Amino acid sequence: MGKSEAEHIKDSRGSNVARLIFGMIFLISFILNEFYGMVLLSAFHLIISAWWFWLIERKYWYYDKHPSLWYLPASLDLMSISASVFVTGICFSPAILGYVIVTAFSSTDTNQNRGKFAAYVSCLIFFVMNTIVYLGLFPLINIVSNEAIHMTTFSFVLSSVLLVVVCLITNQVIASIYLQLNEKNLRLSESLEKINELKLQQDGDYYLTSLLLEPLASNLTNSPRIKIEFSIRQYKRFIFRDFMNELGGDICLADTIQLGSKKYTIVVNGDAMGKSMQGAGGALVLGVVLKSIITRTQVIIEDKNITPVIWLERSFRELNEVFYSFDGYMLVSVFLGLLEEDSGTLFFVNAEHPNAVLLRDGKASFIENEHKTRKIGTLGEGALIKVETFQIEPGDQIFIGSDGKDDLVVGVTETGLRQITSDEEIFLHLIEKFKGNLEQVVSEIQNQFELTDDFSVIKISLL
Q: Quick check: 269 and 402 in contact, CB under 8 A?
């Protein structure tokens, strides 16, 4: 894959600016030393240099059609350098370095003929000037010492040979190195383009999955006594279509169902195994199955005439049956609860999920689990389901979160390793500090610590 037009313009900008600067220096030096014949040449060179800079910057497409135009400014460069070399003393002139510089710049062009042109023409012009001075065909005064120059045979041969050797070697070495680097850059550019294409496809898959998860992680409660709040921050973040998106295995869900004559609020906080796509796949399956169970309960009369304990046990077993098909490679820790709106009784199953937190009278404490239920998808554990209850009082606040709120980076060791804590007390103290304000608690965690996992919290307030 070749370079773009913008890249070509950028690459040539340095040499074009240098040409303008040196053209101005040549012009000023000729004026100061009263070489008025050279002033005309230098002024013409400066005008062509300015035109060339404009052409490359603004009309590159025209140059791209007529690449032979390059030989015009290159020839004028060599003529101006030769004029400077001649008036400052041939082989004693520091302006001889201009030949080497022009050869070096030209040799970085992928068109190798340009580098050879600069090298051979530099040698030819210098040899002609050297010969004229050596034969005494034209008087020459060194403007540095203001003395007439008499060139010996040794000086003539040595200076001519040295310039030929330097220019030709400069051309060969720089052209060889640049072509190798250019070839490697092209291969790297092609590889990078393929990687970017794959990255775009991956981000597209991430984006589609995040769109599928969005309606599943919804809060559809409508109770005047119960207020539900969510906060989800997935660990994997990506940019797609210039928007920041996130993807992970945490999911929060809240809805309302009726069992018998009583109304219940369903609250679910799940944490599927794995990050990014793997975790999102588990969360997606969990959300779809739960939505199916909830919808079925809302429309089928037989499913409404059961107790909340039976509903939780049936739902948990149904989830287990689905995740058994993954042969233990996809597990989900989950807090699955039913909150009776009239009495404030919370029926829940905690399947290896972090303990819920109760904020009552300004004091935060854990709601301990009396029984242990294994994660959804754990093979051989289908019958071990323990439904527990907890009485919520008016004014109480319940916080249910994944382990991402506890697994935090608290610092970096001297060797550069991250120090990770799993201290559940941090979340407890922050709830007390901010009096249960979920937004402030989450903001404080993100400001003080670095997250290592997906992070989600559900807040239940009984009014």
A: yes
DSSP annotation string for 181-224: HHHHHHHHHHHHHHHHHHHHHHHHHHHHHHHHHHHHS-B----S
Gyration radius of the chain's alpha carbons: 39
Tell me the pLDDT of the chain (463 aa) as tens digits: 456 788 888 888 888 888 898 888 888 878 887 777 778 888 998 999 999 999 999 998 898 888 899 999 899 889 888 888 887 777 777 788 888 888 888 888 878 888 899 999 999 999 998 898 888 887 776 666 667 777 788 888 888 899 999 999 999 998 888 888 888 888 888 898 899 888 888 888 888 888 899 989 899 998 889 999 999 999 888 888 778 889 999 999 999 999 988 999 999 999 999 878 889 999 999 999 999 999 999 888 777 889 999 999 999 999 999 999 998 889 999 999 999 999 999 999 999 999 999 999 999 999 988 788 899 998 875 557 889 999 999 999 999 999 999 888 888 777 878 888 888 899 999 999 999 999 999 999 999 988 889 999 999 999 8
Contact at 8 Å (CB) between 248 and 452? no
Half-sphere exposure of 79 toward its Cβ, with a 13 Å CA cutoff? Answer: 17
* Euclidean distance between CA atoms 155 and 139, whole angstroms: 17
Alpha carbon of 119 to those of 103, 107, 268, 390: distances in Å? 5, 9, 77, 90
Is residue 364 within 8 Å of residue 324, measured between CB atoms?
Answer: no
As a whole number of angstroms, the distance between CA 58 and CA 60 comes to 6
Q: Are 382 and 315 in contact (CB under 8 A)?
A: no
Q: Report the C-alpha gap between 370 and 388 in whole angstroms.
A: 8
Query: How far, in Å, CA of 160 to CA of 128, rounded?
Result: 10
Contact 264, 338 (CB under 8 A): yes
- Tokens coding 371: 């029984």
Rounded Cα–Cα distance for residues 130 and 122 (Å): 12
Q: What residues form DSSP beta bridges with 290?
A: none
Residue carrying structure tokens 């070749």: 2
Locus of tokens 């509903």: 311
- What is the total residue count of the chain? 463
Per the CB < 8 A criterion, the answer to whether 135 and 149 are in contact is no
CA distance linking residue 436 with residue 430, whole number of Å: 8
CB 385 within 8 A of CB 455: no
